[in-house]
Known about the structure:
The structure is a single chain. The chain is of the alpha/beta class. It has one domain: Thiamin diphosphate (ThDP)-binding fold, Pyr/PP domains (Rossmann fold), CATH 3.40.50. Helix content is 37%, strand content 16%. It is built from 10 helices and 9 strands. It has helices spanning 29-43, 79-89, 101-107, 109-118, 163-170, 183-195, 209-215, 221-231, 234-237, 263-278; strands spanning 51-55, 70-73, 94-100, 122-128, 131-132, 138-139, 174-179, 199-205, 253-257. The chain has a 7-stranded mixed beta sheet, sandwiched between helices. β5 and β6 form a beta hairpin. The structure holds thiamine diphosphate, iron/sulfur cluster and magnesium ion. Thiamine diphosphate binds next to α3 and β5. Thiamine diphosphate binds at residues 57-60, 76, 100-103, 107, 127, 129, 131-135, 140, 208.
Amino acid sequence: xxxxxxxxxxxxxxxxxxxxxxxxxxxxxxxxxxxxxxxxxxxxxxxxxxxxxxxxxxxxxxxxxxxxxxxxxxxxxxxxxxxxxxxxxxxxxxxxxxxxxxxxxxxxxxxxxxxxxxxxxxxxxxxxxxxxxxxxxxxxxxxxxxxxxxxxxxxxxxxxxxxxxxxxxxxxxxxxxxxxxxxxxxxxxxxxxxxxxxxxxxxxxxxxxxxxxxxxxxxxxxxxxxxxxxxxxxxxxxxxxxxxxxxxxxxxxxxxxxxxxxxxxxxxxxxxxxxxxxx
Length: 279
Ligand SMILES: Cc1ncc(C[n+]2csc(CCOP(=O)(O)OP(=O)(O)O)c2C)c(N)n1
Ligand code: SF4
Ligand SMILES: [Mg+2]
């Protein structure tokens, strides 16, 4: 009998320890995001033999390599396409996609909107650090106004995407956002997303401490993570907080939940009808 649910969460039970040390820079928010995911999976007692973690390319995409489950490290921008095929072929699997802001909103933007539109039962975690971390710090579709990156040496002039608004408009039936500073809240949100029967999109506000943080003089890694509370829920933190770069406060928690037909169910019913009429 599997006794994991009765045990305290120990992240080592869910990691490929032979892959350690991991490659993340000290303080990188992606490590906190991975911890939240593994903690949520533990609480849900998800069987590792029925868990598939699919990721794209990037520091965020690299996270799948450390999970002790079936993992697929795919091509840049395409994890949702791979995951869609996997989930349709194996509906019994819990399918989690880990992607970055560049991976899912730039090169993979088309795949994201169509995954939202279909509403196949999987969970997409978008680790938003506002930059292409892995390739040296280029601007991404979520880079905040005025920020310095290697491709915006005079400060970013493009507006930011609101990824959650995009996902909901495209049809995602569960949408949420959380910051890595609030680890238990993040774990709870990921847990809700996994249990939701449809396409769940969770934006995790992460931090690229080493490149983005350094270039924008955002302080040490702990200082960067603490800054996150200034970017959300302004009513909780007062007006004294300086928010020079973000266009406004990001709302966090569950932002949308819609009851929509799940694509796998409707696809299988459709196939059965077609087969029946051809007999
Ligand atoms: C087809 C293709 N184009 C470009 C790249 C180079 N590339 C690798 S990762 C990446 C950006 C990753 O940014 P993001 O998704 O935000 O992930 P992060 O590293 O910030 O977690 C790019 C452009 C690639 N690997 N393949
Ligand atoms: S480059 Fe940035 S995103 Fe990549 S591991 Fe380092 S801190 Fe994290
Ligand atoms: Mg990124």
